[in-house]
Amino acid sequence: MGADSISADGSDSPSDPGRDVALVGRERSACFSNRRMMSWWRRSRRARERAAANDPRLKGASRFEEGGWIYVHLEGDPGAVGYQHGYLLAREIEDGFAAVSAGMMHGTERDWEFFRKAAHEMLWPKIDAEYQQELQGIVDGLRARTGSKLDVDDLVAFIYAFEELPDYYVAVAEQAAKSGECRRT
Predict the structure, then answer these.
(1) CB under 8 Å to 29, separation ≥6 — which residues?
(2) CB atoms within 10 A of CB 17
(3) Superfamily of 58-179 according to CATH
(4) Cα 108 from Cα 171, distance rounded (Å)
(5) Which of 4, 7, 17, 94 is 20 to 30 A from 122 via CA?
(6) Distance of alpha carbon 46 from alpha carbon 50, whole angstroms
(7) For 12-53, how does the pLDDT look when each residue is reduced to its tens digit (9 = 90+)?
(8) In whole angstroms, what is the distance from residue 101 CA to residue 114 CA?
(9) Per residue in 54-110, pLDDT tens?
(10) How far apart are CA 90 and CA 113, in angstroms?
């Protein structure tokens, strides 16, 4: 029996070196490894949150919940306000993004890359620099709090394109494709 194996009764006795014993041993090792991995993940998340909590961009920011509402106080330059927004509302932003992006893709039969590209090419250039800084701050705050993989294109598609892209851009693109002016992407 290998070092990571245990007998069917849970002891380290090599009395039954059969397949079930080895399987139990692997399951136990896998379980131990998963526990170790989860422990590492929790420690790294807590370390990331402690480091982010000391970030000067969070100075003056606060969050509290009352009566089913979430209240946040944000202050500072656009980048700091965005960072506070992303950090303090990270879980809500992630949940909202998951729901809205799924609905947009289902309702339009387009993949998420379509919306990212449209947000990047059509919307981002028209957003004032101050708001671009705030949006980048939101992404930075999200990443600091949760390690989020969302980027500015995701956020712009989520926030600005929730109504515009599915109702306007998709319809215009489909009309152009039907008339032969462009091909469907």
Answers:
(1) 4
(2) 13
(3) Penicillin Amidohydrolase, domain 1 (1.10.439.10)
(4) 9
(5) 94
(6) 6
(7) 444 444 433 333 444 444 444 555 555 655 665 566 666 666
(8) 11
(9) 889 999 999 999 999 999 999 999 999 999 999 999 999 999 998 888 877 777 778
(10) 22
